[in-house]
Amino acid sequence: MFELHIHTTFSDGHNTPEEVIEKAIELNYSTIGISDHITADGSGIPDTDHCLGFDDFENYFKTIRDLKEKYKDKINVLVSGELDYKAEGYMSVYNEFVKYKPDYILTSVHSINQTQNVWSVADKPQVWEAFAYEFVKLDIDLVNTGTLDILGHFDIFKEHATVNEEKLYPLYDELAEALYKHNVALELNTMNALGPCYVFNSYLFEKCKDYNIPVVVASDAHMISQLHLNFDDAFDRIKKGGYPLPPKGFIEKFKKQ
């Protein structure tokens, strides 16, 4: 069992990296990946009060790698971050981040512009359809940068918005083609299921089956009680749908160092 989308007190998580690692050992994980939020500001300044700026990278990577050494006989600890895709600054952030040789690259979309993100539109049903459309277009643009290994929560907009996803199917077709072209895995984010509006839709996962795109289950945990959250349900969906899980050697294949 492995999990690659976990937040700690380095960003907006409630537990230290060491507490996360110890909980993962308790849950018999073979691999845990720490992936705290990374600034989307191309100048390197933290663009929120719960993300890492460029000046934080050295301490962040050293801390996790020291823990990797400490716990090497019990669990494989990987370090990355959750990069936030905003086209105007993304490549500057990416180029600085990869200098520290992260073990994999996880990137997600959270907003479509400076004022509209997945939380700000939660109480604005009049914009949900348009927001979802622009969000998936950004998912496609992100994957086409060819910079990532895993696309995080591609449909997080459904947590707080009721969306007719059939209108998004042409975009999901484009997204599947991009994932395949750039060898990017798709995250099945189990935290999304906690959203009051979330309804699982199999369309893109069926496309993953057509293209043999690996589906990575991740909790996006912000506290240790959320590790392994809804995993049984997620793996049951994958088994019933016949969606492709990461192949043997996935961790080694996606490791950057």
Please bin the fraction of helical residues: 25-40%
| Outline type | globular
Uncertain segments are: none
N- to C-terminal distance: 21 Å
* CATH homologous superfamily identity: Metal-dependent hydrolases
Q: From the alpha-carbon coordinates, what is the Rg to the nearest angstrom?
A: 17 Å
Task: Estimate the strand proportion.
Answer: 5-15%
Structural class: alpha/beta
The CATH architecture category equals Alpha-Beta Barrel
Count, helices: 8
Give the overall average pLDDT: 94
Structure description:
α5 runs parallel beside α6 (203-211). Helices cover 33% and strands 14% of the residues. The protein has eight helices and seven strands, in the order βαβαβαβαβαβαβαα. It has 257 residues and is an alpha/beta fold. It has a seven-stranded parallel beta sheet with strand order 1-2-3-4-5-6-7. The radius of gyration is 17 Å and the shape is globular. The protein has one domain (2-254): Metal-dependent hydrolases (TIM Barrel, Alpha-Beta Barrel), CATH 3.20.20.140.
Write the layout of secondary structure elements.
Elements: E1 2-6, H1 17-26, E2 31-37, H2 57-70, E3 76-84, H3 90-97, E4 106-108, H4 128-143, E5 150-151, H5 169-181, E6 185-189, H6 203-211, E7 215-218, H7 231-241, H8 250-254
Parallel strand pairs: 1-2, 2-3, 3-4, 4-5, 5-6, 6-7
Q: What is the gist of this entry?
A:
With 257 residues, the protein is an alpha/beta fold.
Q: Which key terms come to mind for this protein?
A:
7 strands, alpha/beta, TIM Barrel, 257 residues, seven-stranded parallel sheet, 8 helices
